[in-house]
Every structure is written in structure tokens, then in C-alpha cells.
From TrEMBL:
Protein name: Crp/Fnr family transcriptional regulator
Database matches in InterPro entries: cNMP-bd_dom, cNMP-bd_dom_sf, RmlC-like_jellyroll
Cited PROSITE patterns: CNMP_BINDING_3
Domain Cyclic nucleotide-binding: start-end pairs: 1-48
The organism of origin for this protein: Roseburia amylophila
């Protein structure tokens, strides 16, 4: 096969896609990026060996610089034999790379497992030492809920020690005669490579799991809000020094903690250095001098007051001194005593005299026995609180952009979950949400955003605002405002590049509409989080990026062509003006700050171009099946994407397409001789339930197609089945399983003919292109892989 050139920075393989090729790195470096792990792959290594054990790429592969790759077709382990028969020289290279990489990955995995054990045991030891020193110095302990709820790391898929030792010994043997043993037989060679691949897959997943644990618990040691072990010790040292005690023992106890933080490079480097320097340069003796001064001053004032009372006054004076001299952040006390509603409103810039009015409104709403009542008074109150929430959200977001990397947990709870008041959700739930702010990173990935992160990406110019309910994008909206005389030409040009105006447009349109829609109960929707919404623990309901990606993956396993678009490849320098190729474009998923039951396909592309991401909208918390929500959303995407491609002729049967054929099928089902009486009755009932909306009928069939038909449980009539198979064909493993079934034999036979015709065309195109001096790139390789799926 021809070499493939990949430019620096290009992600040429996305995780979750089916393994359809292996690539030897001939020149350059590739970054292998899994959930939380990144590995550099240099020349001589083979991309895809690890992934072939799971039949899908378990990481993204990105060209770190300009890369040259040599591809090998691969779909199943049997293909190793074909590779080695046609190109025997690669047998030793494949085996050597597989063993070396398995040894490397298993070694990294073991180091991360050791780190998790060290994080857990060292944190417990430091907290126990803190408690001992508090008792010794007669200092009241500070509550530290994070350590009290700390659990040891649970290994999910840990490789046994013998497996790590086994691959290490094989790697040590190198190219000795012993390695020739595996190359004697094709099955031995394939078996050893697959065993190494499985070991690597397990190791990568376990490393990600361990890294997630470490990331979750790094704030035990160093937290941006200073709710950490270092702050506990700092506070204890200051209090002990203020009482006149010798704090040398505390200093000695802090040193291992500082060393641990430095050795493990915990937290942000700037914050880490700042905190350590702050402690090391702090003058604890100054506290003692000022405490003595307070004691003397208190003695003059107290006069004949009995000693215990005098000591009480001294303690109070010392506490005041510590507050002035030592800006401690007692996180747990703040969490328990802070008025979250006041904090959010003050952060939003609400006037002090209005805070009391807002609190009264919220308490009035909370006092309603059933928040789902729909009487006039409740509706009016709900409307007022809804307007209040969005106005507050705008102001909080604008302020948050100034310190987006250092937001306190209460503000994060508001922006990401819709939380405003402890009384509205209950103290236990508020604490759960508070703890959940440390895990918000789980709700983010390349294509998954919390609402705050999505608005932030628009504010920073990384994404454009969505279309509104009238299908106008931001520039179209400005043009409409100009046409109506509300904007002049200069104002329109200025607003086109105003990031804050773009963000407000997104809030006023997409955010408001989809927040209500994803909640599910439109008539009783209030965006402020309430105890009535929290039917389970917050963490159990949390919609993470991993859950979203898993749900998408399960749909794509059946409907493999779901996110592929036909785009034009052009290279006039080498004789190609316009060649249609298939390109996979994953949707962006935005998580609304509510506890909802619905998902939405808000728009099928981000802009005019076909190769921009769709936008799906989900609630950030739900108790409903995320998989079912995803299947329905993908069905809507299929329909709307076809409408966009077909334009005005989306329902014109003379222009064959998914939507036109489905509309024709539904419109004339009564006259269709291919449908039985029972099938016609079923269509009639579905149409009635769908209020004669043809799209909803298709979505109902699409759900059955993915959930049941793919597995051999036949729910569709023959006409619907034929249309869906032509436009939403099953992936190869499902086609192979259904090929013997009479209902599918003809359809699959036609599909194979179509695929072979396409592959012949691609082979011919590649020959002409390379003859003219062109080089195969990942775009063309992806197109070839598509027709082999």
C-alpha cells in the first residue's frame, strides 16, 4: 500500500471508531491520547496494535509533527496472517513492537497503581498526625469532610503480576533465538500479538482510572480554595504560635507534606510555589508578639475580672488577630455557614436591598406543597423566578470570565447545576453538589461541554452561537435587525465581532429554549434547582462525558455511517478538481444545568458547511436511560441532516433520499400492496400517536431499528426495513449475522454490490492520483476504510 502523509496537529484517528487499519510510523511522532493519558509514539512503532484487541481505537491519535505512515488493512485477527504472508519482513517487527509496548504499558500501569496507594495512605497518615498534634497543643480540630469520606482506590481491571513479569522477560530477550519460536507458526504469532494487545488495553484503561482517582483527590493536598491538608497544618501552626507554644514539632510534621506536594508536582505550578513560599516565609513569631500585646492590653481592661473570663477574652482577641494576620480559608465552616444565595447574588452584582426581595420570592416558591402545581399564582411566581435565574446567570457568567480558572464551588454549582439556595435543595444535596464540583472535569471532553464551558467557548471565540428557534444564526439575526431598522451598518459590523453579544445571543435563545425542553415538564419548568428534582444522589444522576461517549459508541456500533458526511476532496496540482469522500464528524453535546428527562438535536451542523459538528443537548443530571435518549436524538439527527442536504427537495420523491422515500411511504401506505393489513393498522396508530408528523414516525422506526432489528428481533415492516437498510445500513458484524435471514438476503446482496463498485472506483482514483504525483493522506484513507466497514 502507498505511504500516507499526515500534517502536524491533525487528529487522524478518533477513539471509538472501528479498527480498520494498522499504521507503522515511518517518520515523525504521533501522540496517543486516551481519556487522561498521553503517550508519544515514535518511528518504528505500530499504531492500532493495542486497539485491535477491542475492535475499536481506544485513544485519539494526533500527529505531533509531520508524520509519514504505512497502512495495513485490518478488521480481524485473521488479517495478521494475510499481512505476514504478503509481507513476511514485518512479522518480526509486529511481534517486537507488541511485546515492547506491552512491557512499557504494564510498567507504567504499576507505577500509577503505586501512586494511588501512596496518595491514600499518605493523606490518612498526615491527617492522623494532624489530629495527634491538635490534641498535644490543645487546639480544636478543624473538620475536614474530604478526608473523612476518602476511600481507597479500587482496581478495575488490574493485570496480574505474572503477566507484567512475563512481558518484561520477553522484552529482555529481545531478538534472541527464543523469539523465533513465535514466528514458527502463524497462529502462535497472531496469538502472542493479541495477548500483548489485550494486556495493553487493560493497562491503558487502568491508567486512566488511576489518573482519574488521583485527579479527584489532588485537592486533599492542594486545593485552589485552600480546603486542604496544607491549610490545616498552616492553621494549626498559626494557632499554636499565637498561644506561645514552640511549633518546631509542627514544622517537622509539615516538611514531608511539602516534599510530597513538590515531588508529585501537585496542582498548578504557580499555585503550588505560591502556597509553599507563603508557608516558608511566614513569620509565626510575629503572631506570638502580637498575641502577648493583646494579653497585656486585655489585662489592663479586665482589671479584677476572674481569670477564666480573662482567658476567654484573650482567646477572642487571638482569634481576631489570626483573622487579620493570617487569611485562613476554613472551607468546611464556610460551606456550613455561608449563605449561598446571597453569595451568588452579590457575585452577580445584585443590589443589597433587592437580595431580601429575591429570598422572599424563593422561600414563597419553596413553601408551595407541590411545586408542580399549575394554578395562576404558582405560574406567576415560577415565571418571575425564571426571569430572575437567567438575569442572574448572565451577570454571574460575565463576572466568572474574569476569574474562570479560579471559581469557587458555590458559583460552579450555580453555573453547572442551576443551584441557588440550600433551602431549595436541602443541606445534604447541597453538600453532594459541592463535592461534585471537584468532579466536573468528568463532564468535559473534546465534544462534551457543560453549559458554562460551552458559553465560555463562545465568549472566547472557539465556537459560534447556535441558531435560534427561527433558524437564524447570529449573523442572520443581525441582518434581520438591520433590515427592521434596529441596527445601522456600523453597529452591525461592530456586533459581528463582539464576543459578549454573541454569548448573550446564545443565552437568550439556545440556552433558554433547550433548558426548558430537556427538563421535560415544560409547563412546570423552573430553572432553579429544587429538592423535588433530586430523586437520587447527585453523583448517580450525573451525565459524564464518558457516559455520553459510551451511548454514542453503542449507536455507531450498529449505524456505522451515522456521522459520516460526503465532502469534496480537491487537489488541482495533481489532477483532482472534485472527488466526493466520506468524512466522520462527531457532534458537540451540551449539558444543560437541570435534572431532566429529554434530549434534543438542536442543529445538524454548526454552520453552512456540512463538515461541522451537530449540536446535541442533554440534561447534566438524569434518572432516565441515557442510551434511549441518545438513540432518539440520533434518529432526529438522521432526519434533519438529510433535510439539510436535500434542501427544498427533501420530500420530493423524484429526488431519492431518506426523507423523500419515508414521506412517500407514509403518505401512500394505504395503497401499498407490500404492506399487510396488520402493518397498515400499526402505521395508522403510529401516525395518530405522532400527530401525523412523518419525522416522528421515522424516529419511532429508527429506535426499533437500532434496539431490536440489529439484534434479530424484527419489529419493522418490509417497506420501512428496506428504506432504513439503504440509508442507515448496519455495521459489518450485524450484516454478517443477518445475511442468512431471508428478510435480509437481497438487501445485503445489493449492499455488497454497491460497496464493491465504490471500492473499484476508489482503487482507480488512487492509481490515477498517485500516477499524477499525489500522495495518499488520512482523508482519502478514511474514505477507503468507510467502504470496508
Amino acid at each position: 500500500m502507498a505511504m500516507i502523509k499526515v500534517p502536524a496537529g491533525k487528529c487522524f484517528i478518533k477513539h471509538g471508531t472501528a479498527v480498520n487499519a494498522l499504521y507503522m510510523v515511518i517518520h515523525g511522532t504521533v501522540r496517543q491520547v486516551s481519556k487522561l493519558e498521553e503517550v508519544q509514539i515514535g518511528s518504528g512503532n505500530i499504531i492500532g496494535l493495542m486497539d485491535c484487541a477491542e475492535e475499536e481505537y481506544i485513544a485519539d491519535y494526533v500527529a505531533a509533527d509531520d508524520v509519514t505512515l504505512y497502512p495495513f488493512h485490518y478488521h480481524a485477527p485473521e488479517d495478521f496472517g494475510k499481512i505476514f504472508i504478503s509481507q513476511p519482513k514485518y512479522a518480526a517487527a509486529f511481534l517486537s513492537v507488541a511485546i515492547r509496548e506491552a512491557d512499557h504499558m504494564l510498567g507504567r500501569n504499576q507505577r500509577f497503581q503505586n501512586s494511588t496507594e501512596k496518595y491514600y495512605s499518605f493523606a490518612l497518615a498526615m491527617y492522623q498526625k494532624y489530629q495527634e498534634l491538635c490534641r498535644k497543643y490543645c487546639i480544636q480540630e478543624k473538620s475536614f469532610r474530604r478526608i473523612e469520606s476518602l476511600q481507597p482506590y479500587v482496581r478495575t481491571n488490574m493485570a496480574p503480576k505474572w503477566e507484567a513479569d512475563y512481558f518484561h522477560e520477553l522484552a529482555e530477550l529481545g531478538n534472541s533465538g527464543t523469539m523465533d519460536f513465535f514466528q514458527q507458526k502463524e497462529d502462535l504469532l497472531t496469538g502472542q500479538i493479541m495477548q500483548a494487545a489485550r494486556a495493553m488495553c487493560k493497562a491503558v484503561r487502568e491508567i486512566d482510572h488511576a489518573k482519574e482517582y488521583l485527579q479527584e483527590h489532588v485537592n486533599l493536598y492542594l486545593d485552589t480554595n485552600r480546603m486542604d491538608l496544607l491549610q490545616l497544618y498552616f492553621d494549626m501552626a498559626a494557632r499554636a504560635a499565637a498561644s506561645g507554644a514552640d511549633i518546631e514539632e509542627i514544622r517537622q510534621a509539615i516538611e514531608p507534606l511539602l516534599q510530597f506536594i513538590k515531588d508529585n508536582r501537585l496542582g498548578d505550578a504557580g499555585e503550588r510555589d505560591k502556597r509553599i513560599t507563603e508557608y516558608q516565609t511566614y513569620d509565626f513569631s510575629n503572631i506570638k508578639i502580637k498575641a502577648d500585646a493583646i494579653y497585656n492590653f486585655a489585662g489592663e481592661l479586665i482589671g479584677e475580672v476572674p481569670k477564666p473570663q480573662a482567658e476567654d477574652k484573650l482567646v477572642q482577641g487571638t482569634e481576631d488577630l489570626l483573622e487579620q494576620e493570617y487569611a485562613e480559608t476554613d472551607g468546611e465552616e464556610e460551606e456550613e455557614t455561608e449563605d449561598c444565595l446571597v453569595h451568588i447574588l452579590e457575585y452577580a452584582g445584585v443590589a443589597a436591598e433587592d437580595v431580601h426581595k429575591i429570598r422572599s420570592k424563593m422561600h414563597e416558591y419553596d413553601a408551595i406543597p407541590d411545586n408542580f402545581d399549575n394554578d395562576e399564582k404558582t405560574r406567576k411566581l415560577r415565571k418571575e423566578l425564571t426571569a430572575l435565574f437567567y438575569a442572574t446567570y448572565k451577570n454571574v457568567f460575565k463576572h466568572a470570565m474574569k476569574d474562570a480558572d479560579d471559581l469557587d464551588p458555590v458559583i460552579q454549582m450555580f453555573l453547572n447545576f442551576g443551584f441557588m439556595d440550600v433551602g431549595m435543595v436541602g443541606e445534604d444535596t447541597a453538600n453532594e453538589l459541592y463535592d461534585l464540583t471537584d468532579k466536573l472535569f468528568k463532564c468535559k471532553s473534546d465534544h462534551v461541554y457543560t453549559m458554562f464551558e460551552w458559553l465560555k467557548s463562545i465568549y472566547e471565540g472557539k465556537n459560534e452561537p447556535s441558531r435560534n428557534e427561527f433558524d437564524l444564526d447570529y449573523n442572520g439575526y443581525l441582518a434581520e435587525q438591520k433590515r427592521m431598522g434596529k441596527l445601522d451598518a456600523a453597529g452591525m459590523e461592530r456586533l459581528k465581532t463582539d464576543c459578549w453579544e454573541k454569548t448573550k445571543y446564545e443565552m437568550n435563545n439556545m440556552f433558554v429554549s433547550t433548558n426548558r425542553a430537556t427538563y421535560g415538564k415544560v409547563s412546570t419548568f423552573c430553572p432553579i434547582l429544587s429538592k423535588h428534582d433530586m430523586v437520587q444522589e447527585a453523583e448517580k444522576m450525573l451525565v459524564t462525558a464518558e457516559r455520553i461517549e459510551e451511548a454514542i459508541k453503542k449507536v455507531r456500533e450498529v449505524d456505522y455511517s451515522l456521522f459520516y458526511r460526503e465532502v469534496i476532496f480537491s487537489d488541482p496540482m495533481h489532477g483532482v478538481n472534485a472527488e466526493p469522500v466520506q468524512k466522520e464528524v462527531f457532534p458537540d453535546v451540551i449539558l444543560m444545568p437541570n435534572v431532566g428527562m429529554k434530549a434534543m438535536m438542536w442543529q445538524e451542523t454548526a454552520g453552512v458547511k456540512r463538515d461541522t459538528s451537530a449540536r446535541f443537548v442533554f440534561p447534566v443530571m438524569t434518572i432516565y436511560s441515557l442510551q434511549d435518549m441518545m438513540i432518539e436524538t440520533c434518529g432526529r439527527f438522521r432526519w434533519e441532516m438529510c433535510r439539510k442536504i436535500q434542501g427544498m427537495r427533501w420530500n420530493d420523491i423524484t429526488e431519492k433520499s431518506l426523507t423523500s422515500e419515508y414521506c412517500d411511504y407514509i403518505q401512500y401506505y394505504r395503497k401499498n400492496r407490500d404492506l399487510s393489513t396488520e402493518a397498515k393498522e400499526k402505521i395508522k396508530n403510529t401516525l395518530w400517536k405522532s400527530k401525523n408528523n412523518y419525522r416522528e414516525v421515522f424516529i419511532s422506526d429508527y429506535i426499533g431499528w437500532i434496539k431490536y432489528e440489529a439484534g434479530g428481533s424484527f419489529r419493522l415492516n418490509r417497506v420501512a426495513r428496506d428504506i432504513l437498510f439503504r440509508y442507515c445500513p448496519f455495521a459489518k458484524k450485524y450484516r454478517d449475522a443477518l445475511e442468512a435471514n431471508p428478510m435480509y438476503q437481497d438487501m445485503i446482496s445489493r449492499f455488497k454490490i454497491f460497496q464493491e463498485r465504490k471500492l473499484r472506483h476508489i482503487d482507480g482514483f488512487r492509481t490515477r492520483y498517485e500516477k499524477n504525483g499525489g500522495e495518499m493522506n488520512m482523508e482519502l484513507q478514511e474514505n477507503m476504510n468507510f467502504y470496508n466497514m
